[in-house]
Design goal:
This protein is an alpha+beta fold. It has a domain of about 55 residues. Helix content is about 25%, strand content about 35%. The protein is built from 1 helix and 5 strands. A hairpin with a 4-residue loop joins strand 4 and strand 5. The mean pLDDT is about 85.
Length: about 90
């Protein structure tokens, strides 16, 4: 089962007293929105598997139309610069 909202995992060991080393055996605090936790039951219900992975960051993709507009503006700017420098 994947869960995209959980960002903390704690494993508590009550097989020992607190004085004997029991209590929190493992603690993970991830940054909100940057980790995913996936759990599964394996081996006929004998194993709980917990997998913590970083979320894949989405690449920012600029629309082609935006790039086209930027390049058109650059072309106009270079044309204007050419006209200015021809007078020198």
């Amino acid at each position: 089962m994947k869960n995209k909202t959980i960002n903390r995992v704690e494993v508590i060991d009550h097989t020992k007293s607190l004085e004997g080393g029991g209590g929190r055996a493992y603690v993970f605090w991830g940054e909100e929105g940057e980790t995913e936790v996936e759990t599964s039951i394996q081996d006929g219900g004998k194993t709980l598997k917990v997998v913590i992975t970083p979320k894949k960051k989405k690449k920012k993709v600029f629309p082609k139309k935006l790039f086209d507009n930027v390049f058109k503006q650059m072309d106009k700017t270079f044309e204007e610069m050419d006209k200015l420098f021809k007078n020198f």
